[in-house]
Design a protein that fits this description.
Distance between the termini: 72 Å
Largest sheet: none
Oligomer: single chain
Structural class: mainly alpha
């Protein structure tokens, strides 16, 4: 029964998304009333639909060749495209799109949604960590455009932190099979092999720099010897650094790129991040031992204090 349901899902989800992408591309193009898209609607529609058909056909070819990693990435792209087009169509039909003429107008519109706008963004940020193969840097950048820098940082950090915990939980509790299905067996095995014997030190350093696949590494961490407590503390520090740098660097609104002090600040920030990476990579074992030693001492002192009888006057 379970296998039958999985097969139905595997067939209908790509089919529905494929039809939705093509149909809503045509509908969205017809709803433009002015501008470049309106003037060249027929050409753009034909080109877009042709590209979409080729994309869908390529995804099917990878599925038939049993290239699951590539197929899942392409399927995710198809699902996202369908959601974006449906969202665009709704904005067109409701007339909201016409009101968005600037970034300030967009910010006002998001503010008018109350908690729902930020909440949806936080959920999407969490999903991109353990379900949607989208680079976190890209989604944080989108957040910096949709929200103000500090809000983008807080919402992105909250979503990514939650998603990271879910990824670690899947690796630790659900197990290897679930993790390999979500991120791909080849990718998972490759990173497990690379961190073998030095998982805590190497993973901590990797989470700091944006060049490593943080989302995959959450599953890898769950399958390693890393404890929950260490992972949570490490995520708070490393994610805060990476998300803050991206959130406050987009557009140069907080620290400008066109002034001498702005360039100096970004140079120092980059040097500090690289220095921290090197320090953790080389001295990670000693830092971890020092931290655990300090923590264990505090814990022992607390237990001793609890065991001592209260002194009476």
């Amino acid at each position: 029964m379970k296998q039958s349901i999985n097969k139905i899902i595997q067939i209908f989800v790509p089919l529905i998304c494929s039809v939705a992408v093509i149909v809503f591309t045509v509908l969205c193009m017809r709803n433009f009333r002015e501008g470049f898209f309106y003037e060249h609607a027929s050409v753009i529609t034909s080109a877009a639909v042709s590209i979409e058909i080729i994309y869908i056909g390529t995804a099917v070819a990878f599925l038939l060749k049993k290239s699951q990693i590539v197929y899942k990435i392409m399927l995710t792209g198809l699902v996202l495209a369908a959601l974006l087009l449906v969202g665009l169509f709704v904005l067109q039909v409701t007339g909201i799109l016409e009101k968005i003429r600037s970034r300030e107008a967009l910010l006002e519109l998001i503010d008018s949604t109350g908690v729902w706008g930020p909440l949806v963004f936080i959920v999407l940020q969490a999903l991109q960590v353990f379900l949607l193969p989208i680079p976190g840097t890209l989604t944080v950048g989108v957040g910096a455009f949709l929200f103000r820098p500090l809000e983008a940082f807080l919402y992105s950090f909250a979503g990514i932190f939650i998603g990271s915990l879910v990824g670690f939980w899947i690796g630790r509790v659900v197990g290897y099979k679930a993790a390999s299905w979500l991120v791909g067996k080849e990718s998972l095995d490759k990173w497990l092999e690379k961190i073998k014997g030095k998982d805590r030190r190497l993973l901590t350093a990797m989470f700091i720099l944006p060049i490593f696949p943080d989302d995959v590494l959450c599953f890898v961490a769950g399958l390693s010897t890393m404890t929950w407590k260490y992972f949570i503390i490490m995520q708070i520090i490393s994610r805060a650094i990476s998300v803050a740098v991206t959130s406050f660097s987009i557009g140069g609104n907080t620290i400008p790129y066109n002034t001498w002090w702005g360039i100096l600040c970004w140079t120092l920030i980059g040097a500090a991040i690289i220095g921290l990476f090197v320090l953790i990579y080389k001295k990670g074992d000693r830092m971890e031992a020092w931290f655990l030693k300090k923590f264990s001492r505090k814990k022992e002192n607390c237990e001793e204090n609890k065991g001592e009888p209260e002194k009476k006057d």
